[in-house]
Design goal:
Blueprint: H1 7-17, E1 23-28, H2 35-46, E2 49-52, H3 58-73, H4 88-98, E3 104-109, H5 111-117, H6 121-131, E4 138-144, H7 147-155, E5 167-170, H8 188-198, H9 214-223, H10 227-230, H11 232-240, H12 245-255, H13 261-268, H14 272-284, E6 288-291, E7 305-308, H15 311-320, H16 324-328, H17 333-365, E8 375-380, E9 385-392, E10 397-404, H18 412-425, E11 432-439, H19 445-454, E12 457-460, H20 461-464
Length: about 475
Amino acid sequence: MDFNDRKESLRILGKIWDKKSAEFCVVYGRRRVGKTALLAHFAEHKKLLHWIAYKTTTGELLVDFSKQLYAYINRGENPAVDFSYGSWQVALETLAVASQKNRLGLIIDEFPYLVESDPSFPSLLQALWDKKLSKTSLFLALSGSRVSLIKREVLEPKGPLYGRATATLLLEPIPLSELAVFFPRYSDVQLLEVYGLTGGVPKYFELIDDHAPVLKNIEQTIRERTTMLTSEIYFLLHEEFREIRVYLAILRALGKKVSTLGELSMFSGLESKVVSKYVDDLVQLKIIGRQIPAGEDCQKSRRSQYVLRDLFLNFYFHFIAPFLQDIDKARFEGVLKNLHQQFDAYMGKFVFERVCQDHLARLGDEGKLSFRPTTVGAYWDKDCQIDILGINHHDRVMIAGESKWTNKKMGLSVLKELETKVKKLSRKYDYFCHLVLFSRSGFSDDLVDTAKKQNALLVALKDISLPKTTL
């Protein structure tokens, strides 16, 4: 893995390591995002012990940990074949003694597996940290992908380790602006297609070879029935939940453009109160997201919609899940026909529109607009639907926009249509309104001329994606 993309994360970890005092760091994030690779790279360069837990008994984990800790403390000297510390407490107390005078580092990776095998471990670690480890020169890092467990045991007030962490690092997917480092042969259009498939999760980059078009890569992956594409959802959900049937039903519904809580209740056959609990779980894990019309109060709005926030899963439930039986039987015609017919529509609605909203918010934050929108998103009501709306209620000003993901230049008609929508919107928000248009393929000459006269902002894809350069 190219660690150019993780320079900031490595810098943060390095700064914590350099303090020399006792440090308790928590590194967490979605599975497949690259935590283990990052920590292995850091441990190798700083000479830390990087121990990875796995699914087994606490006794077997203790034996494995004991041998690695002994070798680390004793500078590579291997213990006897049957060596093990008498308990986790003895092992950690040994580490505390060894790190009194020397800067030592321990990374416990896949921490949730250790907690699963020994639920008392977090409380033991809390007691030893308070009494001994916090008074040493130890660098301790806990890492894991089961975000709910990390939050419950470490980050939330009721957790035994709450308040002990001196630093937390949430590892996010690779942003769109940095994908060119991984796919230098791709155009801006192709880079956004990669983003629409992978969501910037590094592990999924393995599905793409930039010597071939993105759709060709996807087609080959489907034909090969690659497990990462067909079975990943079950792996991800089982990491967080014991029973996944209802969660799967909700996600399938969202893939079929079901979006409200009432619709999800009807689709799943469960009461709204029950569905709401499952939906909340998925929102907490950032698998799905709740949207309201831009400008409305999130507590009062009655037009909530839920969408698949994780782009890899969004792609899966739109293009793979409906055809799993056909794929399993090597009947590819239907899934590939749907892919080629609907991929651009998917890109326009679920990827490009979101990227344009993020870009507009960034322009406001950087002071590149005449005002700073306090909220940016889509807007919809019974009269109109607007792809992008940035609004500032205090200043009574807003900016409305449309985005088009087509291989044709955007024409003047799109601007005219947007002006009509804004007139309808002004019945609710009688604010001064700027206009902005986003296009994958540029703009017609008459649109460029009219936009200049009306001071409308035109943003092409090349203005959103950063140029190809090493970081």
